[in-house]
Amino acid sequence: MGADHRMYPAPWTSIPGFVAHDWVRYAGEQSLSEVAHSMCDSYHINDGDVLIGASLGGMVACEISKIRDISRLYLIGSAARKEEISTLLTALHPLAQIAPLDWLRILAGKIPMELAQMFTSAEPGFVRAMCVAIFNWEGLGPSTTKVIRLHGSHDLVIPPPKTVDLLIDGGHLISMSHAAECAAFIMGDSGGGVLI
Questions:
Q1: Which of the two residues, 107 and 143, has the higher pLDDT score?
Q2: Which residues lie below 8 Å from residue 172, measured CB to CB, with a gap of 6+?
Q3: What pLDDT is stored for residue 7 in this prediction?
Q4: Whether 171 contacts 3, CB under 8 Å
Q5: CATH 3.40.50.1820 is held by the domain 5-195
Q6: 14 Cβ partners below 8 Å, 6+ apart?
Q7: Is there a contact between 77 and 151 (Cβ–Cβ < 8 Å)?
Q8: DSSP structure string for 94-154
Q9: Rounded to an integer, what distance in angstroms lies between the CA atom of residue 166 and that of residue 188?
Q10: Which helix (H) or strand (E) covers residue 39, if one does?
Q11: pLDDT-derived band at 84, boundaries 50, 70, 90
C-alpha cells in the first residue's frame, strides 16, 4: 500500500511505452475513485491507455477504467472486487485506524529490503484512508475494458481468483519477485503500458 515505482524493477522498463508512476501526494482522498481521479489528473492518463496495476494500484486502475476508456487492464496480484481480499485482512482492517504507522515507518527504515524502504515514505493518512476505502469499494463491475490477471499462486493478501491468465509460483509481490515473467507476459500480450 505504500509502494512506489520501485515495485517495478528491471526489466519492466523494457516494455515499450512503460511509465511507472508513484502515488500522488495525499490530499485527503477517501475513496479509490477519488484516488483514481487524482492519478488521472496528475499523470495525464488518457483514453486508449493500457494500465498495469499491482495490489492497491490495480484496484485504483479498475476505478480509472470507469473514468477513461482503457483498452487493457493488467491486474498483478490485485483484486477486481473487495471480496477477493483475504478474509484475515478483511477482519483486521479496522486496526489500521489505531496502528502506530509513524513508528512502524521509522522501524521499516532500519530494514534494508526495498519493500521496507518504500514503506518509510508512505503517508500514514493515505494508508489509513485506503484501509477503509478498499472495504467500501464497489469493485470493477461490468466493464468493456479487457482485464488480464497475473497472480502469485501463494498470495496470502489476495488469494488467486478462479480465473487467472498467468499464475506464477510466487506470493503477493510478483511484480518485484518475478519481474521478468510478468514483463515478458505483458510485452508478448500488448506491447506496452502505463503503470500505476
A1: 143
A2: 55, 77, 152, 155, 156, 157, 158
A3: 87
A4: no
A5: yes
A6: 183, 187
A7: yes
A8: GGGGTS-HHHHHHHHTTS-SHHHHHHTTS-HHHHHHHHHHHHH-----S-SSEEEEEEETT
A9: 12
A10: helix 32-43
A11: very high
**DSSP 3-state of 76:** strand
Please give the DSSP secondary-structure letter assigned to residue 174. Answer: H
Name the amino acid, one letter, at 163.
T
Distance from CA of residue 129 to its chain's centroid? 15
The residue assigned the cell 487492464 is 73
Q: Can you tell me the mean pLDDT for 85-98? A: 59
Measure the N-to-C terminal CA separation of the chain; round to a whole number of Å.
Answer: 12
Cα–Cα distance measured from residue 67 to residue 36, given in angstroms and rounded to the nearest whole number: 8
Q: Structure pTM?
A: 0.84
Listed in sequence order, the residues at least 6 apart from 152 whose beta carbon sits closer than 8 Å to its beta carbon are 77, 160, 167, 168, 169, 170, 171, 172, 173, 174, 177, 178
Question: 4: closest CA among 18, 24, 29, 33?
Answer: 24
Residue 176 has pLDDT above 80, yes or no: yes
Domain ranges of the chain: 5-195
Element (H, E) at 51: strand 50-54
Beta bridge partners of 149: 75
